Amino acid sequence: MRTTTVIIGAGQAGLAMSWWLAKHSIDHVVLERGEPANSWRTERWDSLRLLTPNWQSRLPGYRYQGSDPDGFRTMPETIAFLSDYAKAIAAPVRSHTTVTSLRRHVDGYEVTTDKGNWRCDTVVIASGACNIAQVPSVSASVPDGVDSLTTMQYRNPDQIADGGVLVVGASASGTQIADELQRAGRSVTLAVGEHVRIPRVYRGKDIQWWMDAAGVLDERYDTIDDIVRVRNLPSLQLAGYPDRRTIDLNSLTEIGVKLAGRLAGINHGKGQFSGSLRNVCALADLKMNRLLNSIDEWVAENPASEGIDAPHRFDATEVEESPALLVDFSRSGIKTIIWATGFRPDYSWLDVPVLDRKGLVRHDGGVVTESPGMYLMGMPFLRRRKSTLIDGVGDDARDLSAHLVAHIKATSPLSTPLVA
Predict the structure, then answer these.
(1) SS3 readout for 66-83
(2) CATH superfamily placement of domain 5-131+345-411
(3) Quick count: other Cβ atoms within 10 Å of Cβ 316?
(4) pLDDT value at position 253?
(5) pLDDT category, 416, cuts 50, 70, 90?
(6) Does position 420 have pLDDT exceeding 90, yes or no?
């Protein structure tokens, strides 16, 4: 089978690229291992909601039209939104088609799937940044009798064995799961590493409204001094709760969650924790206040409408005087460990030498320069700070589709792409 462009993945990034390619009259196909929005369907816990308000669900040619713009979508609602988008734009999705290999070919690329092969001039990898849960090597030392699962496997408190729970990782997933389990009556200990603290609401408006209005989310990758470091920052401590409450370490300790430092090791059934918890929390507080300062400066330079609250600051993160450095799982009653330690993409099918030593695709703002005609979508800070958001993929797809069209014209000046 032959087409001009193959898009791998039918999540928000792949569908946004499909819309732009159709606008450019580029014939293409979208290959999806499951159904559109597959990761949202199969790899999220039951109570999860989007971290962004409904109004921020803006895709090319499509956006939220409901009656609750400031609410937060549930997973079923998110799946329906993306599925409806795929139908609305008539995206040429080939569902339940698993890519097993992507290779360079003499005149472009060859994509091998379990339902036949495709030849194409260009290819867009939009298979996602969160395909595989990253679990540290210390997990190999989890003692017998203690269950171990990742956030991709967690669904709800009912699946967790009776007893205490250690949640490792205090970014978005870890803090939300710790909150849910503690409120369900479990005794939760949260191992805290580097994290990004942020309020849900500031000066009367959602924090995402401020970052959108002030241009924070539109910051470009080529204006950042150390883009590699920024792309590896943990996700925000943020949740889309209906009551719009802030989730942070203070809110968790208020309901009884115990804090510990980063899990450094497990030896003879005992967890060993870093003593840097206080310093890590102080740094997170400092970074949060820098963001709030930047918002205040923007307001001063761009007088907003009436009703904006006065600037204020939040209490510093409270850390007990001597956080535990050693926890005996048996004596403390911990029966489950949940690894909320991040994710990585799966490129086991990629047979083109474009991966760095960490197994990530080397690229320049989504353009894989080492393999002309190859593009990447949906990765952290790909072209903008908002690149992994539903609201961010459209702008990235616009830029990269224009580059793709220019590449096709430069390499095949006499060819006339067909309408998808």
Answers:
(1) CCCCCCCCEHHHHHHHHH
(2) FAD/NAD(P)-binding domain (3.50.50.60)
(3) 14
(4) 97
(5) very low
(6) no
User: What pLDDT shows up at residue 419?
Assistant: 43
Q: Do 392 and 232 form a contact (C-beta atoms < 8 A)? A: no
Local structure of 296: helix, strand or coil: helix
Per-residue pLDDT of 336-376, as tens digits, reads 999 999 999 999 999 999 999 999 999 999 999 999 999 99
- Indicate if 135-339 has the same CATH topology as 5-131+345-411: yes
Mean pLDDT (the chain) is 95
DSSP3 helix / strand / coil % (the chain, rounded to 5) = 30, 25, 50
HSE-up of 198 (CA within 13 Å, CB side)? Answer: 20
Token duo for residue 379: 């990765």
Residue 179 CA to residue 190 CA, distance in Å, equals 10
159 pLDDT above the threshold of 60: yes
Residues 6+ apart with CB under 8 A from 377: 9, 13, 14, 16, 17, 124, 125, 126, 366, 393, 396, 397, 400
Is the sign of the CA dihedral 70, 72, 77, 81 positive or negative?
positive
- Is the backbone of residue 140 left (phi > 0), alpha (psi -120 to 50) or beta? alpha
Interior angle at CA 130, CA 345 and CA 148, nearest 5: 110
Predicted pLDDT of residue 307: 74
Containing H/E element for 343?
strand 343-344
The structure's pTM equals 0.94
Per-residue pLDDT averaged across 72-93, rounded? 97
Strands 28-31 and 5-8: parallel
Tokens of 367: 């353009």
Q: What pLDDT was estimated at residue 150?
A: 97
Q: Is 300 exposed, middle or buried (0-12, 13-18, 19+ CB in 10 A)?
A: exposed
**What are the domain boundaries of the chain?**
5-131+345-411, 135-339
Question: DSSP H helical segments within 89-222, as ranges?
Answer: 172-183, 207-213
Residue pLDDT, tens place only, 249-272:
999 999 999 999 999 999 999 999
Q: How far apart are CA 412 and CA 51, in angstroms?
A: 43
Class of domain 135-339: alpha beta
- Scan for tokens 């740094």, then name that residue: 283
Residue 346 structure tokens = 């799966």
What are the tokens at 224? 């950042």
